[in-house]
Design a protein that fits this description.
elongated; binds flavin-adenine dinucleotide; 5-stranded parallel β-sheet; alpha/beta
């Protein structure tokens, strides 16, 4: 069949590229379809300092190594594509792109990842990775000895603010309400920390800087007053959005629109697996994405092997039945 593969992987972040490496290495004809630049959120990260075995590497470099590795095993990667439709429920899965081309496969791994929710204010896009971060585990260390701001009032914001005091000399939490939407113990821990201070009922209205973040405009939502505050860094924790819009109604999602998976990364649809940041899970890191991608690809390889074996046995049985029918007719 034209454009038919053993497996299609949707998304070329760390989870998808890992799946590509494992599937291709298992001699499965594999295609990765990716919406934009290969690497996903990795390419937003100027330095990855917590990926075991590799020191001082940029996200872009790490993504390129993963891409090269997948390709070396024969994995095909198509980037900058737009998916128009997916059919996951049929035995043969299909993905149709905006250019009208359709690719089919016996199994699919969904790794579309996600994106941190943005504040959506002036200067944010330009200063991402230059002082604005969405990941304390990833970037906290770069702010050692500096004064920073954390935006948000949920569990993530408060817990990450506390964890950032390991590095920063001062952490100011800016929150839009006069109370927090977090567990009592998280609020208490933040309030008891001498390095943390609070600016309540306020939001950031704009970021200023050139090569690096210099200051922010903080607006008091009660009085309307705007104050420009100098800062070395801003961490934004106001939620996370999985890139699963195209999967609604196709595969089971939870209330946060994350794909629900079993321990082997299988979804509720036969032959469809999911991995990485788009699945329902607590910790989102390159290492966890790579681990999920590994599990999903091994489980899919096993599924494809079992399906092939079932088909072959069925064909052998049918052949035997046919032969015995012919023999019976010949002797009657
Ligand atoms: C600023 C920042 C810094 C970070 N720093 C670190 C760090 O230092 N260490 C660490 O461990 N983690 C870090 N993380 C987290 C880490 O990058 C993610 O956990 C990881 O990239 C998730 O991998 P993934 O493959 O699941 O998804 P992603 O990396 O999000 O990749 C998903 C891919 O799928 C594509 N895609 C999405 N929708 C579609 C679609 N409909 N069709 C086709 N393709 C689609 C996307 O374009 C993307 O290429 C950071 C995250 C951010 C945002």
């Amino acid at each position: 069949m034209n454009n038919h593969y053993d497996a299609i992987v949707i998304g070329a972040g760390p989870a998808g590229l890992t799946a590509g490496i494992y599937l291709s290495r298992a001699r499965l004809n594999t295609l990765i379809l990716n919406a934009n630049t290969v690497g996903g959120q990795l390419v937003l990260t100027h330095e990855i300092a917590n990926y075991p075995g590799v020191e001082n590497i940029s996200g872009y470099q790490l993504a390129n190594i993963m891409k090269k590795q997948a390709k070396s095993f024969g994995c095909e990667i198509k980037s900058n594509i737009i998916i128009k439709d997916v059919d996951l429920n049929s035995e043969i899965k299909s993905v149709t792109l905006s250019d009208g081309k359709t690719y089919t496969a016996d199994g699919i791994i969904l790794t579309p990842g996600g994106r941190p929710r943005n504040l959506g204010v002036k200067g944010e896009d330009d200063l991402k990775g230059k002082g604005i971060s969405y990941c304390a585990t990833c970037d906290g260390d770069f702010f050692t000895g500096k004064e920073i701001i954390v935006v948000g009032g949920g569990n993530s914001a408060l817990e990450e603010a506390v964890s950032l005091t390991k590095y920063a000399t001062k952490v100011t939490i800016v929150h839009q309400f006069d109370n927090f939407q977090a567990f009592e113990h998280a609020v208490e821990e933040a309030k008891e920390n001498p390095k943390i201070s609070f600016i309540m009922e306020s939001t950031i209205e704009g970021f200023h800087g050139d090569e690096k973040l210099r200051s922010v405009d903080v607006k008091n939502l009660r009085t309307g007053e705007v104050e420009n505050i100098k800062t070395d860094g801003v961490f934004i924790f106001i939620g996370y959005l999985p890139n699963t819009e195209f999967l609604e109604g196709k595969v089971r999602l939870n209330q946060n629109k994350e794909v629900i998976v079993n321990a082997d990364m299988s979804t509720n649809v036969k032959g469809v697996y999911a991995a990485g940041d788009s699945i329902a899970k607590r910790y989102r890191q390159v290492t966890t994405a790579v681990g999920d991608g590994t599990v999903a690809s091994l489980a899919l390889s096993n599924y494809l092997h079992e399906e092939k074996t079932k088909k072959r046995k069925m064909e052998e049985m049918n052949m035997k039945r046919l032969e015995s029918l012919i023999n019976t007719k010949e002797y009657s």
